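Sample intake sheet
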Amino acid sequence: MTRKSVQVLIRNLEVLARIGIHGHEQGKPQPVRINVWLDGDMEVGVDRLENAIDYEDISNKIRGIIAAGHINLAETLAERIADTCFEDSRVKRAKVRVEKLHALPGAEAAGVEITRDAP
C-alpha cells in the first residue's frame, strides 16, 4: 500500500459559542471563527471517503465541543479541537486558530493559534 501526504483544511467556520471569562461573556453565545489545518496521510488511488480525513466529521465534532457547554478560554477550545482531530490516526499535525469576532473594539478579531503534533 502506497501512502501520500495530504493537507486538509477547514477555513473560516463561524459558530456561536459560549466562551469567555468576563462577566459580559457569561450566559450568552458570541460569534467565533475557527480555522483548522491538518497534516496527515492517505492511501494512494483509493477514491472512497473512508480513505480520507473527513473534514465534515471534524466540523461536526467542533460543533459538538461547542454545544457541550461554556468554555472559559479560546486556548482550551483550540486544544479540544486539536484533540478531536487526533482521533483520526492519519492526522499527524494539527494547527487550530480560534478567533472571537467581537472581543476587542476596533479589531476584526482576537484569539489564539496552536500547533500540535499527534501524541
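Comment: Residues 8 and 53 are 7 Å apart (CA to CA). The longest strand covers residues 3-17.
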